[in-house]
Amino acid sequence: MPPRLSPSAVSLKTPNIHTHCKSCFQRSFSSTPSLSQTKLREQFWLWLRGPGENFRHPLPGSTNYLSAYDRRGNLIRRGRGQEASGESEKEKSSEDAVTADEEALEAAATEHEQEYKLPKETLEDLRPFPWNKNFGKPLAIPYARAVHGMVPLTTLNPTTRLPDEPHESINDLEQHPLTFPQIFYPASESRAFNRTDAGRVFSGAPRLSDEQENAIDEGAHEAWQDSRPEIIGRPGHTRTVLKPADSRIPHPHLIAFEKDKQDRSLTPLERRARHRERLEKDEERRRALKAKLQEEEESKRTRIDVGRWQFVVTEVQSTRQGTGLDGRGSGKGAVGQRYGVPSQERKKGQVKIPTKVDV
């Protein structure tokens, strides 16, 4: 049998030129990996540790534009072209970070024509690592101060401990459940259809009389002063009429306070006294209403003491009259009022165009 060639001898044989592709001759023979991505990454981190440090830890209370710094990361200030005169400017140490930050804040405040007077505690919390002892520690105080700097705050008067301006806006209202359905209601063109009429339509209440409508149109009766609930319906099927938004606001005293500001005959002391009196009356009314509701809820419950325990029983109507045909219930205390079938008002495919109008 003829001798076989060893694998080492075959591997040492010079390959033919026709066995290689064209790209093999153009490929660079180097065992070092490509450094293009690594070099870009190193340049990025060098920029972050150099001029980019201003954007990782920006100046508090001022804008941080790219054009506000030069290539070396120094803040461009007013009068930069003027050279520093005197030995005191040349002898300033670069390690004095507190003075440098304060000067930067002062320059930014002068540029934007605002006054930024931050306490030293805030400056200490916002300073980067080499000059901040608490840098990197899980502290909530710097985070809270940063959030408070972005969220509008209500300042209190140090003497009266009351807010100088109202904390919440006057138009914050929740959407009433009676306004969920879509209603087609015919209205006369010779008469204005206002919010009061819309609330009565949503509630299924009859329209107001001509005298009441004329009083509203003439301004003799303002809606924000109407806080009395109007109840309609038969006994057992009663419901309250939906009032307009001006009557449902939780703080009508603010409207009265603004109207007092327009009255030139009142002094500021009298306006504040009237406003304080309205607040006290409103607080008393809310307290009485809350106590009344608690008494009504307690009257519907039966408490049974069994030694160590106390059972609270509430009566409900589980009959056809209480739950209704659709399971929703007809009364307020019915079981199906909350756990019935969902409403079909906004369901897809429901025809809401009226075919007749009952006058």
Q: How is this structure best described in words?
A:
Pfam families: Bot1p. Residues 78-100, 259-285, 318-359 are annotated as: Disordered. One of its GO terms (molecular function) is structural constituent of ribosome. This protein is mostly helical. Among the domains are: 193-249, no CATH class; 251-297. 38% of the residues lie in helices and 4% in strands. It contains 15 helices and four strands. It has helices spanning 7-11, 22-26, 36-49, 53-56, 87-90, 97-111, 120-126, 141-150, 195-203, 210-218, 245-248, 253-262, 268-299, 320-323, 336-339, and strands at 231-232, 239-240, 301-306, 309-314. The strands form two sheets. Strands 1-2 form a two-stranded antiparallel sheet. Strands 3-4 form a two-stranded antiparallel ribbon. β3 (301-306) and β4 (309-314) form a beta hairpin. α12 packs antiparallel against α13. It starts with 6 loop residues before the first helix and ends in a 20-residue tail after the last helix. The model is unreliable at 78-98 and 112-116 (pLDDT under 50).
User: What oligomeric state is this?
Assistant: single chain
Number of strands: 4
Reading the helices and strands in chain order gives: HHHHHHHHHHEEHHHEEHH
Main beta-sheet annotation = 2 strands, antiparallel
Percent helix range: 25-40%
Q: Give the distance, in angstroms, between the N- and C-terminal Cα atoms.
A: 118 Å
Question: What's the alpha carbon Rg, rounded to whole Å?
Answer: 39 Å
Share of β-strand residues? under 5%
Structural class: mainly alpha
Q: Determine the number of helices (DSSP H or I, runs of at least 4 residues).
A: 15
* Spatial strand arrangement across the major sheet: 1-2
- What is the average per-residue confidence, as pLDDT, rounded to a whole number? 73
Low-confidence stretches are 78-98, 112-116
Label the overall shape. extended
